[in-house]
Amino acid sequence: MSADPEARAKAILARLVAFDSVSDRTNLPLVEFVEDYLGGLGVPTRRAPNARGDKAALWATIGPAVDGGIVLSGHTDVVPTEGQPWSGDPFALREIDGRLYGRGACDMKGFGAAALAMVPTFQAAALKRPIHLLLSYDEETTCLGSLDFIAAFGAELPRPSVVIVGEPTMMEVADAHKGVATFQTRVTGVEAHSAKPQLGANAISAACEIVAEIDRLGRDLEAPDRLDPRFDPPWSTFHVGVIRGGTARNILARECEFHWEFRGLPNFSSAAALALVQSYVDEIALPRLRRFAPGPQISTWMEVDVPGLAAETGSAAATLALRLARSNRPIAVSYATEAGHFQRAAVPTVVCGPGSIDQAHKPDEFLSTAQLAECLAFLGRLAEQASSDFVG
Ligand SMILES: [Zn+2]
Question: Which of 210, 223, 258, 327 is at 20 to 30 A from 127, Cα to Cα?
Answer without folding.
Answer: 327
